[in-house]
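ok so for the tutorial part 2 we go from a plain amino acid sequence to predicted structure tokens. step 1 is just haveing the sequence, like this:
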Amino acid sequence: MSTKPTGLTLWQLVVVTVLGALLVGLTLLFGLNRLMGGLLLDDDDCLGTEARADEISSVSLLGSPPEGARVATGWHTLEVGCRDGRDDELLSATRSYEFDGDHQVVRDHYRALAEGDGWTRVTTARAAGDPQVGRTDVCFEKELAGGRVLLRVSFDPGVFWVGTETALDDDEHVHC
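step 2 — the prediction. this is what the tokens look like for a chain of 176 residues:
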């Protein structure tokens, strides 16, 4: 009576090892991408924007919520990345906060901080019928080393977002 080996063949062992290495590599890549705010795997227009992303992410107001605000679940790090705006492509850095208080407290808080840091208030006129009407409640602009940057504060019930945006194309401007 002959006995067959019960372990993996050399070929099966190679296949399992290669697939395991690919899985670990992809997991590390997606993890690193998440830590960098999506810049690694975003579209090609984000390539080469790391310095600009660092600049708009380092605006101190993004991490300076009013008293009583808590970082929203899942927003413990800034969300940084490229996205398509209405007419242009934008680089943005955003954080969300839960807040049960009056939105006017948030507006006043960011107005005081922004104006004290050299930001200029911008009117937020939007077209009627725009689904974003009313969401961007406070908007400021400032020239940073890389160009014009907007600071926005937007609301939904029980939550607000504070974020910075800049156009990727030097000829474009982000509007409130």
